[in-house]
Amino acid sequence: MGKVIEQRGLYFDEFEVGALYKHAPGRTVTEADNVLFTTLTMNTQSLHLDAAWSGRQEFGERLVNSMMTLSIVVGASVAQLTQGTIVANLGFEEVAFPHPMHHGDTLYSESEILDARPSKSRPGQGIIRVRHVGRNQDGTVVATCVRSVLMQGAPGKDQS
C-alpha cells in the first residue's frame, strides 16, 4: 500500500501572520439555495422571499440572505484552514456586507491571517484571528469579517 495522505486544516503552529489564502472553488448561489437557507433559518424577511414585494424595492429583486453569504465565505475556508484542526469558533467582529449578492452571482472567498498567539489557558492550542473576504464574480466585495478561532497545535509540539 502506498503513502496515505489525509486532508486536514492547518495546525496552530502552521499559520503565518500575513499569509493570504485564496479558497477554491467559488460557489454560484441559486434562487433555490437562498430560499432554502432563508426558510431553514426562519428568516421571514420579504427581501429574500417575496419576489413581488422585492421587485418594488430599491434593488428591484430579491437579494441573497447576507447570513448565507457569510456562511459560504467562512465555509469555503474550512478545507484549507480548519478541517479537523479547529477546537472552537470563538467569535466574529467587524462583519460587513458592502454590496448585495444576487441570485446567480458566484462567491469567491479568501482569508488573511491577522494574528496568532498561543492560548494562555489551553496548552497545546492557539488562537488565530483571520479576516475573511467574499467577492462576487466581478471582484466586488460582498462580505467581510474578522473571526477568532481556537486551533489545535501540531501533535507532540508544545505551543507555550
Give the structure's gist in a few sentences.
The chain is of the alpha+beta class and 160 residues long. Helix content is 21%, strand content 35%.
General description of the model:
- It is a single chain.
- Strands 1-3-4-5-2 form a five-stranded antiparallel sheet, covered by helices on one side.
- It starts with 19 loop residues before the first strand and ends in an 8-residue tail after the last strand.
- By secondary structure, it is an alpha+beta fold.
- 26% of the residues are buried.
- It has helices at residues 31-40, 46-49, 51-55, 66-75, 78-82; strands at 20-28, 86-96, 106-118, 125-135, 141-152.
- The protein has a single domain (12-152), classed as Hotdog Thioesterase (Thiol Ester Dehydrase, Chain A).
- It has five helices and five strands.
- InterPro entries: HotDog_dom_sf, MaoC-like_dom, MCH/BMMD.
- Pfam families: MaoC_dehydratas.
- Belongs to the enoyl-CoA hydratase/isomerase family.
Number of domains: 1
Q: Write down the overall mean pLDDT.
A: 95
CATH fold label = Thiol Ester Dehydrase, Chain A
Shape field:
elongated
Could you list the spans in which at least 5 consecutive residues all have pLDDT below 50? none
Kindly report the spatial arrangement of strands forming the biggest sheet. 1-3-4-5-2
Proportion of strand residues: 35-45%
Based on secondary structure, the structural category is alpha+beta
Query: End-to-end span in angstroms?
Result: 38 Å
CATH class: Alpha Beta
Would you identify the CATH H-level superfamily? Hotdog Thioesterase
